[in-house]
Amino acid sequence: MPNYAVGHKTPDSDSICSAIALSYLKTTLGEETVPARLGELSPETLFILDKFGFEQPELKTSFAGEGIYIVDHSDRIQGPDDIDEATILGIIDHHKLGDITTSTPLEIWVRPVGCTNTIIKMMYDFYDVEIPKNIAGAMMCAILSDTVIFKSPTCTTADIKCVEALAEIAGISDAKALGMEMFAVKSAVLGTPIRDLVLRDFKDFNMHGNLVGIGQLEVLDLAIFDDMKLELFADIAKLKAEGNRHTVLLLLTDIMKEGSEMLVISDNADLTEKAYGKTLVDGKVWLDGVLSRKKQVVPPLQDSLA
Amino acid sequence: MPNYAVGHKTPDSDSICSAIALSYLKTTLGEETVPARLGELSPETLFILDKFGFEQPELKTSFAGEGIYIVDHSDRIQGPDDIDEATILGIIDHHKLGDITTSTPLEIWVRPVGCTNTIIKMMYDFYDVEIPKNIAGAMMCAILSDTVIFKSPTCTTADIKCVEALAEIAGISDAKALGMEMFAVKSAVLGTPIRDLVLRDFKDFNMHGNLVGIGQLEVLDLAIFDDMKLELFADIAKLKAEGNRHTVLLLLTDIMKEGSEMLVISDNADLTEKAYGKTLVDGKVWLDGVLSRKKQVVPPLQDSLA
């Protein structure tokens, strides 16, 4: 019976590419490991898989009785629903430490870097395993995605160096150009059902007993959302009610202007004031310089709800 | 303001030596870090510090507003009481993943090996920092202690190789002989107040809402406890009542016979039967081959209390 490597719900490119890269590493080390996904893939991730010749990982949501590596998260709510019935063999992540616990010792690699795949590269180096060309390409794209082509405040020197090294292995001469191509795919939101858009990169957090859902859409130009705002508001309001959530936030991130418009539906009217020092106007607020949910949105919100 | 590296309450040699070794590493990397301890040191640890010329780390129990590295644990109950008011910069540990969470990304090195210092050695290698002779000696002793001179089932090839490498750096020709000398110091329990003995290596665990305290004394010959059993029972019963605990266990481990006698005071009369398949006789049970609290005592108990 193989082990599995699985990222978070509503998988993003980092979750999928790190599951693929870790599975190859562990399998090469003699421990058969298969990548899995907890949900449907975004156009960006499909673009990466297609570009480097990968099939979609197996859709698998139950891991009872199986050995799993958790990648790109450590919050129970973001992982498989029956995570308690699985044996967690390892966690590779770059977020704050969540509430997953285990009853046996395991392998954990967590680093304050921009992308899980940067850590997976460290693991390849540590175990002295060569990275195949196509895996290096997929890892590189995941890092470009998570760091918003190095613009995100989460981006570290380690991420930039890692992209350089992976580009060389993959034989890609202009990594940034490939990153822009990828973000153009990501920006093509027209024609997509509103709920699919809202859930494309959506994570729930348990913040001191309050369920908070935060979605993010990163595009090259926010104007693309101009005619959708009312529909987006209606849908996140629905999402809040359906999930009995305290708050739902949707970040519309402009990667060229380097900031995010935040749409807010919350039980707390003064939520953005308390967390970010900005008053809501018509349920929206522009947060200049904010590109990272993990580093700039979650921590102040979590602290303000303490 | 420096950061701190701190191990668990009732510190053992691994907690102290890993705090010292990590502090040197981080300071060398440009991040001033100071080792601290949460309590009094055991004769074994004092022997190691004396042997390699170290002062006792600073006794410090409050870390509010400070940056800390947590070593050798990841359970809140085992760490500083005001851990929530500190900024956790990293965790280096070899136990099951506990319930510490953070609000910001951090550095975590957890491996299923016999000793935290084996992981710290990996960190020195990763960051390409040379280990000073005296730190290598202290790290080596901590590994010999935690792995019971390689006899514990927690001991891995990585621990053995690490001791070999550290012995070479420290210029020690017979690591095992030094280990035996250390265990002889550890076995000198006569004349020590009973409460000090019980707490010498004592850890509390929150097992599915039940507070369980587990102490362990490792000696070269169990006969040394023959005249103390009644006093030991009386004291762990007191400890159970004082702390409002569900269970207190005391493991008397014979490292030569390679097994442990477990003294039990518990709310569950059938605790050892359910967890270990062994019936208590006069509150005691012999567990053959059991040397490791972490690997052989805690997991089945935690599962049986689920």
> Strands of the biggest beta sheet of chain A: in what spatial order?
3-2-1-4-5-6
Could you give the order of the helices and strands of chain A?
EHEHEEEEHHHHHEEHEEHEH
- Overall shape of chain A: globular
Please name the two chains that share the biggest interface, counting residues whose Cβ lies under 8 Å from a Cβ on the partner chain. A-B, 31 and 31 residues
Keywords (chains A, B): Hydrolase, Manganese, Metal-binding
EC number (chains A, B): 3.6.1.1
GO molecular function (chains A, B): inorganic diphosphate phosphatase activity; metal ion binding
GO cellular component, one term (chains A, B): cytoplasm
The gist of it:
The structure is a homodimer of 306-residue chains. Chain A has 306 residues and is of the alpha/beta class. In chain A, 38% of the residues lie in helices and 21% in strands.
Give a description of the structure.
The structure is a homodimer of 306-residue chains. In chain A, helix 1 (13-28) packs antiparallel against helix 4 and helix 3 (116-127) packs antiparallel against helix 4 (133-146). Chain A has 10 helices and 11 strands. Helices cover 38% and strands 21% of the residues of chain A. Chain A is α/β, with parallel strands linked by helices and 306 residues long. The first copy, chain A, has 2 domains: 3-184, inorganic pyrophosphatase (n-terminal core) (Alpha-Beta Complex); 194-304, Roll (Diaminopimelate Epimerase, Chain A, domain 1), CATH 3.10.310. At the A-B interface, strand 6 and helix 10 of A face strand 6 and helix 10 of B.
